[in-house]
Specification:
- There is one protein chain.
- This protein has one domain.
- The protein is 38% helix and 27% strand.
- The chain is built from four helices and seven strands, in the order αβαααββββββ.
- The strands form two sheets. It has a five-stranded mixed sheet with strand order 1-2-3-6-7, sandwiched between helices.
- α3 runs antiparallel to α4.
Length: 168
């Protein structure tokens, strides 16, 4: 009876370690099409991003991910988002470029973790909206959890940032 308990405990430990090492579960990162057309007015756009995007439940799916090795985690999460976009026949090439631009935005100083990408339109132009969890990589010289959220919106064709909000 002791061996099955030990094996079960080992499997649970392995699963927990895997879940917290920054590998996105395909069902936790989200790629979706938003039916709500995003507004063109800057103030309305900020409200739209906060109320319709940043507050979505999937933005909080990663409480156990730490900022340790965040650049590698960013790549894995971005790859998963791009794969999901391709599966949905969305412009995954543009999404990849947007994710690269967002990574550059961090300047290597702020840990980013892309957790969701939404396709919609803004004044009849297709845009990608990407939700990113963020945090300073080290607090008291230690990795920490991703407590903050940022949302970026990019014109899909011009690859220009059309909106941005952050919680801090």
């Amino acid at each position: 009876m002791v061996k099955p308990v030990i094996i079960f405990a080992g499997i649970c430990s392995l699963l927990l370690a895997h879940a917290t090492d920054g590998r996105p579960a395909r069902k936790t990162v989200v790629v979706a099409v938003l039916d709500n057309l995003s507004p063109a007015d800057a103030e309305q756009m900020d409200q739209f991003l906060w109320n319709q995007v940043a507050s979505r439940k999937e933005a909080g799916n990663f409480p156990s991910a730490s900022t340790s090795k965040w650049k590698e985690k960013y790549k894995r999460f971005a790859d998963t988002l791009v794969d999901k976009a391709a599966e949905q026949k969305l412009d995954s090439v543009a999404l990849r470029k947007v994710l690269d631009l967002i990574f550059d935005h961090s300047k290597g100083e702020i840990a980013y973790l892309p957790v969701a990408a939404y396709h919609t339109t803004m004044v009849d132009r297709p845009i990608w909206i990407v939700t990113v969890r963020w945090e300073y990589p080290l607090i008291n010289r230690r990795p920490t959890q991703f407590y903050h959220v940022r949302v970026f919106a990019f014109d899909e064709q011009a690859l220009t940032q059309v909106a941005y909000i952050t919680c801090g």
